[in-house]
Amino acid sequence: MPTLRFVVGLALLAGATHSLAATMFCCQDPGTNRRVCADGLPEQCRGRPYKLIDGAGNVIKEVGPPLTAEQKAQAEIDAKRKKEEEAVLREQRRKDQALLNTYSDLADIDRTRARAENEIMDAVKAAEGKIAAARKQRQKYENEAEFYKKKTLPPEVDKGLRDADSEIRSQNELLESKKRDLEAIRTKYDDDKKRYQELTGPRSAPIRSVPPQGTGTELRPR
């Protein structure tokens, strides 16, 4: 008899434990407006919001009604936008890390910028020198052409004038290109310095745009 009572007690305890551990699906029956619960999703709950309730009566999850076609479309749009935003954030973090890896401090940005600007200004001076030489050469052929006035110019004089004009035009185009490069460099390093300050905190004076020493700030075609 003691053994029988022990077995019965275990069975009752196991049943109670199973009851407490069971998860129930519950929803409001639209027909009777009463709560319907079962250990599986009741037929009345299909296509309707329902709750998952544990054996102690606690709501462990709530499931809303199925999305409409419009809601599904909006959800897809929102998911796509979120994915794009996350991609933008990842790219920004990559750029930020590259910026921190490139420069040791704000002064390093200034030094790098100065070198880049000076390289452009060296190219500018070289182009200006070639323009001056081409103008001098052209003046020589202009003087010879003046001698012939309305007569047909000798081939070498005509070619000399055309070559000089071509060289002047080419070097002026180069000057315009270098002017754009200079503006792009100044914008880049201003942006780099500003972002570096944002990432590392204020460590120096506010950003200033300072042209390379010994050079002007304007490039004009000659």
Brief sketch in words of this structure:
With 222 residues, this protein is an alpha+beta fold. The protein contains 4 helices and 4 strands.
What would you note in describing this structure?
The structure is a single chain. The protein has 4 helices and 4 strands. The chain is of the alpha+beta class and 222 residues long. It has 3 domains: 46 residues, no CATH class; 36 residues; 94 residues, Helix Hairpins, CATH 1.10.287. A 4-stranded antiparallel sheet has the order 2-1-3-4, with no helix packed on it. The longest helix is centred in the last third of the chain and has 46 residues. It is elongated and about 115 Å long. About 13% of the residues have low confidence.
Task: Label this structure with key terms.
single chain; 222 residues; alpha+beta; Helix Hairpins; 3 domains; four-stranded antiparallel sheet
